[in-house]
UniProtKB/TrEMBL annotation, chain A:
One of its GO terms (cellular component) is ESCRT II complex. PANTHER family: EAP30 SUBUNIT OF ELL COMPLEX (PTHR12806), VACUOLAR-SORTING PROTEIN SNF8 (PTHR12806:SF0). InterPro entries: ESCRT-2_cplx_Snf8, Snf8/Vps36, WH-like_DNA-bd_sf, WH_DNA-bd_sf. It is found in: Cytoplasm; Endosome membrane. This is Vacuolar-sorting protein SNF8. It comes from Emericellopsis cladophorae. Belongs to the SNF8 family. It holds the Pfam family EAP30. One of its GO terms (biological process) is protein transport to vacuole involved in ubiquitin-dependent protein catabolic process via the multivesicular body sorting pathway. Component of the endosomal sorting complex required for transport II (ESCRT-II), which is required for multivesicular body (MVB) formation and sorting of endosomal cargo proteins into MVBs. Keywords: Cytoplasm, Endosome, Membrane, Protein transport, Transport. It is a peripheral membrane protein.
From TrEMBL, chain B:
Belongs to the VPS25 family. The keyword Endoplasmic reticulum does not apply. Keywords: Protein transport, Transport. Coiled coil: none annotated. PANTHER family: VACUOLAR PROTEIN SORTING-ASSOCIATED PROTEIN VPS25, VACUOLAR PROTEIN-SORTING-ASSOCIATED PROTEIN 25. InterPro entries: ESCRT-II_cplx_Vps25-sub (IPR008570), ESCRT-II_cplx_Vps25-sub_N (IPR014041), WH-like_DNA-bd_sf (IPR036388), WH_DNA-bd_sf (IPR036390). This is ESCRT-II complex subunit VPS25. The keyword S-adenosyl-L-methionine does not apply. GO terms for molecular function: protein homodimerization activity; structural molecule activity. One of its GO terms (cellular component) is ESCRT II complex. It holds the Pfam family ESCRT-II. GO terms for biological process: macroautophagy; protein transport to vacuole involved in ubiquitin-dependent protein catabolic process via the multivesicular body sorting pathway. It comes from Emericellopsis cladophorae.
C-alpha cells in the first residue's frame, strides 16, 4: 500500500482501510490470541538460538548488546534474571549467563560497585550529579585490556540495580543529557532548568538566566546559590564582569564546550 | 637546585582537563568543592613537578597562571594548597618555597637501598655529589636530584642503620651497610 497517496482518493483509501481493521479487529483479536502466544514462544526460542550463535558479538559490541537487551525486555525475557552458573536449565534466566560468561548478576553487580565507587570519589567535585557519559568513561578506566567494553546503556542498567539502596541512585534526564544522581535530594524544577541552561556554554550567569528563562534576578541568584551549596556548580570570579557558574561535567565534557589547552597554553 | 622554569608555550607537560576549566582558578567557597579542588591541584602540581623533575616549587610558579585562559590561582590560595600538600606529606616548606615530594624521601630511600644492592655498593663510600652528578648514577632517577632531598632520603637510611653520613656541609659522604 503506497504511503504517498495525495488528494481525496488517498484519504478515502486510508479511511476505508481503518474501517476494515476496526470491524475485523475484535474478531482478529479473539482468534489470534492463541496464535500470538505460540508465536511469542517460538520467537523466544529463536532469540535464544540467535543469542548463542552471536554470543561473541553480544559480548563485545555494546550497541548490539543494548539492542538485544531491549528485544529481550520487549518479549518478557528478563536480562537481569539471576542464574546460578551450575544450572543448565537453558531457560531465559540462563541466557545472559551464557553470553556474558558468568552469572549476569556478577557483570551488573561488579559494574554497580564501580559506579558507586566513582560516584563517591567524584561527589566532592560534582555534588553527586555526574553526566552518564562521563561516568561511563570513568568506570571504564583502569579495566584490563580485552575485557567487555562498557556502554552508557550498561551503566544505566547497573544503576537500576541500585534502586534497593533507598532512592539515592537514579538516572535522570535534563535537557539533552542524561545524568546519574547519587544523592537522595532530587533537583527542583528551577535547579533542573539551570543545569539544562549550563549545557549550552558549560556555565550560567545571573543575567543569562534572567534573559533566557525570564526569571527575576533574585530568583536566578537563589537557584544558583542552591546549586552552589549542593556542590553542583563551581564559581569563576575572574571574569571581570558577572561571576560565572560552571557545571563540573563540562570539566570533562569536551563536546564543543571548551577546547582543552593540552598544548600547555 | 631547581630546573629552569618552563614557559607555557612549548611546555611538554600534558595538562589535565581541569586546567582548562576557568573556575578551577577560583578558590571555591563550598567546603566539599574546595576540598576536591585542592586534591586536583595537588595532583597537578605533583605530576607537573615529576614530569619536569622539579624538586622545589614557589607559590608564584607560572603554572598557577593559565595565560590562555587568563586565569590565575591567587598566591594566597596557592599557599593554602601547599599547606594542604604539606599535611599530606607531599610538601615541606623551605624558606619561601616548598620541596615537592612527587616521591617521598622514604621512597627515595628504598630506591637507593635497592640501587646499592643491585650495584654491590655495600661498604662503599660515596659523596652526595657523586650520587647526584656522578657517572655512576647516569640513567638512574638519582641523577640530577636535589641535594637536600637526597640528604633527607639518606637520613631515613641512617635511622634504620643502613647508612652513615659524614663530612662537612659542602662535601658530605655516605657509607652504605
Amino acid at each position: 500500500m503506497s504511503r504517498k497517496g495525495v488528494g481525496i482518493g488517498a484519504f478515502d483509501r486510508s479511511r476505508l482501510t481503518s474501517r476494515q481493521f476496526a470491524s475485523h479487529g475484535s474478531s482478529l483479536r479473539a482468534s489470534n490470541t492463541e496464535a500470538l502466544t505460540t508465536q511469542l514462544t517460538v520467537f523466544r526460542s529463536l532469540l535464544q538460538q540467535f543469542a548463542q550463535t552471536h554470543a561473541k558479538d553480544i559480548r563485545s559490541d555494546p550497541a548490539f548488546r543494548a539492542q538485544f537487551a531491549r528485544m529481550c525486555t520487549a518479549i518478557g525475557v528478563d536480562p537481569l534474571a539471576s542464574s546460578s552458573s551450575s544450572s543448565s536449565s537453558g531457560a531465559g534466566g540462563g541466557l545472559w549467563a551464557q553470553l556474558l560468561g558468568g552469572s549476569v548478576n556478577d557483570f551488573y553487580f561488579e559494574l554497580a560497585v564501580r559506579v558507586v565507587e566513582v560516584c563517591s570519589r567524584t561527589r566532592g567535585e560534582n555534588g553527586g550529579l555526574i553526566g552518564l557519559k562521563e561516568l561511563t568513561e570513568r568506570v571504564s578506566q583502569g579495566r584490563m585490556e580485552g575485557s567487555t567494553e562498557i556502554s552508557p546503556d550498561d551503566v544505566k542498567r547497573a544503576v537500576e540495580t541500585l534502586k534497593p539502596l533507598g532512592g539515592s541512585y537514579a538516572v535522570i534526564s535534563v535537557g539533552h543529557k542524561e545524568y546519574v544522581r547519587s544523592v537522595p535530594r532530587e533537583l527542583s524544577n528551577d535547579q533542573a532548568s539551570v543545569v539544562e541552561a549550563a549545557q549550552v556554554l558549560g556555565y550560567v550567569s545571573v543575567s543569562m538566566l534572567r534573559d533566557n528563562l525570564g526569571w527575576e534576578k533574585a530568583r536566578c541568584q537563589t537557584v544558583i546559590d542552591d546549586l552552589m551549596s549542593e556542590g553542583m556548580l563551581w564559581v569563576d570570579k575572574q571574569t571581570r564582569g558577572e561571576w560565572e557558574y560552571w557545571s563540573p561535567t563540562s570539566m570533562v565534557d569536551t563536546e564543543g564546550v571548551m577546547e582543552p589547552a593540552l598544548d600547555g597554553g | 637546585m631547581s630546573a629552569a622554569i618552563q614557559t607555557e608555550a612549548g611546555d611538554t607537560f600534558p595538562f589535565p582537563k581541569d586546567y582548562s576549566f576557568p573556575a578551577f582558578f577560583t578558590r571555591q567557597p563550598n567546603l566539599q568543592t574546595h576540598h576536591a579542588q585542592l586534591e586536583k591541584w595537588s595532583a597537578l602540581v605533583l605530576a607537573y613537578a615529576h614530569h619536569h623533575r622539579l624538586f622545589r616549587f614557589s607559590p608564584t610558579h607560572p603554572v598557577f597562571h593559565n595565560k590562555k585562559l587568563d586565569r590565575r590561582f591567587a598566591e594566597a590560595d596557592v599557599r593554602e594548597l601547599l599547606e594542604h600538600m604539606r599535611k599530606d606529606g607531599r610538601a615541606e616548606w623551605v624558606g619561601n618555597e616548598v620541596f615537592v615530594y612527587w616521591r617521598r624521601p622514604e621512597d627515595w630511600a628504598r630506591k637507593l637501598e635497592k640501587w646499592v644492592e643491585d650495584t654491590a655498593q655495600k661498604g662503599h663510600v660515596l659523596t652526595l655529589y657523586e650520587i647526584t652528578e656522578g657517572e655512576a648514577t647516569l640513567g638512574t632517577d638519582f641523577h640530577g636530584m636535589d641535594g637536600e632531598v637526597l640528604l633527607k632520603a639518606l637520613n631515613h637510611l641512617v635511622k634504620r642503620g643502613r647508612a652513615q653520613i659524614f663530612g662537612q656541609d659542602d662535601s658530605l659522604g655516605v657509607k652504605f651497610f
